[in-house]
Specification:
The structure is a single chain. The protein has 635 residues and is mainly beta. It folds into five domains: 40 residues; 139 residues; 142 residues, Immunoglobulin-like; 147 residues, Immunoglobulin-like; 144 residues, Sandwich (Immunoglobulin-like). The longest helix has 23 residues. The protein starts with a helix and ends with a strand. The N terminus is likely disordered.
Length: 635
C-alpha cells in the first residue's frame, strides 16, 4: 500500500476542520491511523485449524464443545485485543452457542475468565445470531485457544431438528487481520435420551404406591414415539418390591392394557421379583402419550414391614426406529409407617396442680417391627420459665429415673432436654427397647405430661410437638398439641388432711391449716372467700380463729392491723364469708384461709358427718372448684 493512497483514505475519513487546534487533532489522528495501517501491512492473519471430527449433540441439554481440539495461531502472536466469531448459518431459534465451563475457563454473565483472570467479554449466540468474544489487551495465545475450545452447542427443544448445524469460525488478531472462515459441523443425534432428575418421592410402608417416573425426562429428536418401548428395572430390589402402573392423570389399567383417557395406548408386563416392568406403546403414541404413562410408573411393596432404605430404579427407552437410550436412574427411599394420632382434645393445666397429660387417649400405629429402637417424644416449642415436660408414672407405666417400665417390663430409656436459661425441661425422648409392642409404645405416649412450676405462670397457651421416629431417625410425622393455662383460682390443701375429728365438748377444730390459694392472674384484691357446711345443722358454726395476725372490729377484718375486708361468720347452712377489699394481698388471703375453724353451739348436736366446702372467687369473678373436707364427731 503506497503512503499517498493511505493519505487519500485519511482525508476521506477526516474532513479537514477550519481551526488550528482541530488541525492538530486531525494530524494526530492521522498518525494513529497510519500506525494501524502499518501494523496491518506488517502483521500476518491468524489461522484456525485442527477442528477435528464434527461434534455430536445428545438430546440431554448438556452443552457439547464444537471445537474441542481446535488450535489458533498467529505468526506474530498478536492476540492482545483479538476476537473470534462463530456463526450457525442454519441455527434454529432454540439453538445456542455458549461458553461451557472447563479446562480453567469460566463465564460469569458476559465476562470470561481463564484460571480466574478476566480475559474478555462474550456475547451468547442464539439461532443464526453469531457468538462472539472480544479479548482484552493482555490476552495470550493460550487464553484465546482455551476459550475457543470451550465454545459449546446446546439445544433447548425436546425434539429439535436433526439437520446438522453448520458453523463458520472467523478469528481476528489484535491488528484487525481476519482469518479465512473455517467451516465446521454439529450433528444432532436422534438416539433417544432419558434424563434422571435425582430422587423421586419417598414410599411409606403400607401405602398404595409412590411415583418414580415423574423424575425421568424424555427427549427423542427423531420423534419416534410410536411403537416405542420402556424397560424399568429395580436395581436394588428387596422382598415384596413391585413396579407398577399408578392411576392418575387420566391413566388407568385394564388387565395388561394401559389406558389414557379411556383409550388403550400401551401394554405392560412384569414388575415383580427380578422381572423388569416392560411398557410397549402402540403405533400412534405421541410424546404426550408416553409422558402421561411414564409419569405413572410407580413403586410399591406388598410386605407389612418392608426393608427400609433406598431403591434405585433404572429406565431404558427404545424408540420406534429401534434406537436405544442409555439407562438412567432415579431413586426413592422406603420409610416406616409409624405415626401418632388421637391426641385431641387439648388439655387444660391449672396452676399449682399436678402434671396434666398431653395425649391421654393417644394412639400409635404402624408395623410393630419398626418400634424396636424407635424414638417417641414430646417437645415444647414455646417453653416459659420453670415449665416442665416429662414422662410421668401412670396406670401401667412406671418411671424410675431414666428407665421406663410398662406392667413391670423395661421398655425404654429417657433423655430429658433442659434449658438452663429458663430453668425449664422443654422436651423428653424415650428410646424404645428391642421388641417393644404397640401397646407398650402407646402407654408411653399417654404418659407424656406438662406442669408449670412458676407460682404465677404465664397464661399463654403452651405449644408442643409430639412425634415418633424409627431407629434410623426418620420421622413419622409430627402431631401438634396445645395446653391451655387455666387462670381460675385454685384452693390447694397442700398437706392438710381431708378428714378431721371434733368432740362437742372440746375446742373448735382448725381445718385446712396449711391450705393455699393460687390465682394465675394474682387477682386477690376485691376477692371473696366462702366456707360453709353443706346441709348444715342447727348450731353448726364456721368461724375465724381470732388472735395473732387476725382481728375483727364489728364486721371489719384486719390482718396485721391493715383493714383487708369484711367478715361474717357461718351459722347452720349460712356460710362464712370474707369479702376482701383493695388492700388485700396474697399473704392476707392465705393467712385468713389457714385460720378457719368448725364448732357447734348445739348442746345436743347431730353426730352426722359434716362436709365443709371451701371456695374462692378472685377479683375478676373467676371461681375456684370447691374443696370439701369432712368433720367426724367423736362421742
Amino acid at each position: 500500500m503506497r503512503r499517498s493512497t493511505f493519505q487519500f483514505r485519511s482525508k476521506f475519513w477526516f474532513t479537514p476542520p477550519a481551526g488550528r487546534r482541530n488541525l492538530q487533532v486531525a494530524a494526530t489522528t492521522l498518525g494513529q491511523v497510519q500506525l494501524l495501517e502499518s501494523r496491518q501491512l506488517l502483521s500476518a492473519s491468524p489461522t484456525v485449524s485442527n477442528l477435528g471430527a464434527p461434534a455430536t449433540y445428545q438430546m440431554d441439554f448438556n452443552p457439547v464443545p464444537v471445537a474441542a481440539s481446535a488450535t489458533i495461531t498467529d505468526a506474530d502472536g498478536d492476540f492482545g485485543g483479538s476476537q473470534f466469531q462463530i456463526t450457525m448459518t442454519n441455527g434454529a431459534s432454540y439453538d445456542q452457542l455458549v461458553i461451557a465451563g472447563g479446562n480453567g475457563v469460566t463465564g460469569g454473565s458476559s465476562e470470561v475468565f481463564v484460571d480466574g483472570i478476566s480475559v474478555g467479554y462474550a456475547s451468547v449466540g442464539f439461532g443464526t445470531t453469531p457468538f462472539g468474544i472480544a479479548f482484552s489487551a493482555s490476552a495470550t495465545a493460550s487464553d484465546v485457544q482455551r476459550v475457543l475450545r470451550q465454545v459449546s452447542f446446546v439445544s433447548y427443544s425436546n425434539a429439535p431438528s436433526i439437520t446438522p448445524r453448520q458453523l463458520s469460525i472467523v478469528a481476528t488478531d489484535g491488528s484487525g487481520n481476519a482469518s479465512a472462515p473455517v467451516a465446521h459441523t454439529v450433528n444432532i443425534t436422534d438416539v433417544p435420551v432419558l434424563i434422571g432428575f435425582g430422587s423421586s418421592s419417598n414410599y411409606r410402608a403400607g401405602s398404595a404406591y409412590a411415583a418414580v417416573g415423574t423424575s425421568i425426562g424424555i427427549n427423542n429428536a427423531g420423534g419416534d414415539y410410536g411403537n416405542s418401548k420402556f424397560v424399568v428395572t429395580n436395581l436394588t430390589r428387596s422382598g415384596g418390591d413391585v413396579l407398577k402402573i399408578g392411576g392418575y392423570g387420566g391413566v388407568t389399567v385394564d388387565g395388561s392394557n394401559i389406558l389414557l383417557q379411556g383409550q388403550v395406548v400401551a401394554t405392560f408386563s412384569g414388575g415383580t421379583g427380578a422381572t423388569p416392568l416392560t411398557i410397549q406403546f402402540g403405533p400412534h403414541a405421541t410424546f404426550n402419550t408416553v409422558r402421561g404413562v411414564i409419569n405413572n410408573v410407580a413403586f410399591s411393596n406388598t410386605q407389612t414391614a418392608p426393608l427400609r432404605g433406598p431403591r434405585t430404579i433404572g429406565f431404558i427407552m427404545t424408540d420406534g426406529g429401534g434406537l436405544k437410550s442409555q439407562q438412567v436412574t432415579t431413586s426413592l427411599n422406603v420409610h416406616h409407617n409409624l405415626s401418632i394420632s388421637n391426641t385431641s382434645p387439648p388439655p387444660t393445666y391449672t396452676p399449682s396442680k399436678d402434671y396434666v397429660f398431653l395425649a391421654p387417649q393417644g394412639l400409635v400405629s404402624g408395623a410393630v417391627n419398626y418400634l424396636s429402637g424407635a424414638k417417641i417424644g414430646a417437645y415444647q416449642t414455646n417453653a416459659r420459665a420453670n415449665d416442665s415436660v416429662d414422662l410421668i408414672s401412670r396406670g401401667s407405666v412406671t418411671v424410675d429415673g431414666d428407665d421406663v417400665f410398662v406392667a413391670g417390663v423395661h421398655v425404654g430409656t429417657i433423655v430429658r432436654l433442659f434449658d438452663s436459661n429458663k430453668n425449664a425441661n422443654y422436651g423428653v425422648t424415650v428410646t424404645l427397647d428391642e421388641g417393644t409392642t404397640r401397646y407398650q409404645a402407646q402407654e408411653v405416649l399417654r404418659s407424656f405430661a406438662f406442669k408449670a412450676y412458676s407460682r404465677y405462670p404465664s397464661l399463654e397457651d403452651r405449644k408442643f410437638n409430639i412425634s415418633i421416629a424409627d431407629n434410623l431417625n426418620i420421622p413419622g410425622g409430627v402431631t401438634a398439641q396445645v395446653v391451655h393455662i387455666n387462670n381460675t383460682p385454685v384452693i390447694n390443701p397442700v398437706n392438710s388432711p381431708s378428714e378431721y375429728f371434733y368432740h362437742p365438748a372440746g375446742q373448735p377444730v382448725r381445718i385446712m391449716s396449711t391450705a393455699m390459694v393460687f390465682d394465675g392472674g394474682a387477682n386477690y384484691a376485691s376477692s371473696t372467700l366462702t366456707v360453709g357446711v353443706r346441709y348444715g345443722k342447727s348450731g353448726d358454726t364456721v368461724a375465724l380463729m381470732l388472735g395473732g395476725p387476725i382481728s375483727v372490729i364489728g364486721t371489719n377484718l384486719y390482718v396485721r392491723t391493715v383493714l383487708v375486708g369484711t367478715y361474717t361468720p357461718g351459722n347452720g347452712s349460712t356460710p362464712l364469708q370474707v369479702q376482701f377489699n383493695n388492700n388485700a394481698r396474697e399473704n392476707d388471703v392465705q393467712t385468713v384461709l389457714q385460720r378457719i375453724s368448725y364448732s357447734t353451739t348445739n348442746p345436743n348436736p347431730s353426730t352426722a358427718t359434716r362436709n365443709i366446702a371451701f371456695q374462692f372467687t378472685d377479683g375478676t369473678g373467676a371461681v375456684s372448684e370447691p374443696v370439701v373436707v369432712k368433720v367426724q364427731y367423736l362421742t
